[in-house]
Every structure is written in structure tokens, then in C-alpha cells.
Specification:
Layout (H helix, E strand, L loop, with lengths): L13 H11 L47
């Protein structure tokens, strides 16, 4: 399963987006628990994480056939 996880990352030119953020962006700091983007709302920003981490959470009730437990 790990080989199929987030395969779309392979087609993204991450260096381009990182350089765009670094060269043209404004450094912003978010507090723990503060939202960067939210479901149902148009995101205002594109980001590159310089330090720290970002918690990405998806809530779904319509997922079929996925198991995170070993077989």
C-alpha cells in the first residue's frame, strides 16, 4: 500500500513552488491549532513550510475498501 500513497506528489514540480514562495512570498507564522485552509472555503494562500509541521486532516464517511491495519 505504501507505494500507492500520495502518488500525485511525483508529478508536482516542488522546487518551482518552493522557490516561488521563498522569492515572492511573505513569511507568516501560524499558532498551533490555527487553520491554514478549511473545507468549503477558498484558500487565500499557498504555502511552503520553512520549519515546524502542518497537520493535514481529512474527515470522510464515504471511504470504501481502505484498511490501515495489517492483513
Amino acid at each position: 500500500m505504501a507505494s500507492n500513497f500520495n502518488t500525485y506528489y511525483e508529478s508536482i514540480d516542488s522546487d518551482f513552488w518552493r522557490n516561488l514562495c521563498v522569492e515572492k512570498g511573505v513569511l507568516r507564522q501560524y499558532d498551533k491549532g490555527e487553520l491554514f485552509a478549511e473545507e468549503g472555503r477558498i484558500a487565500k494562500y499557498l504555502g511552503y513550510i520553512k520549519s515546524g509541521s502542518l497537520k493535514y486532516v481529512v474527515y470522510a464517511t464515504d471511504v470504501i475498501g481502505v484498511s490501515l491495519l495489517p492483513s
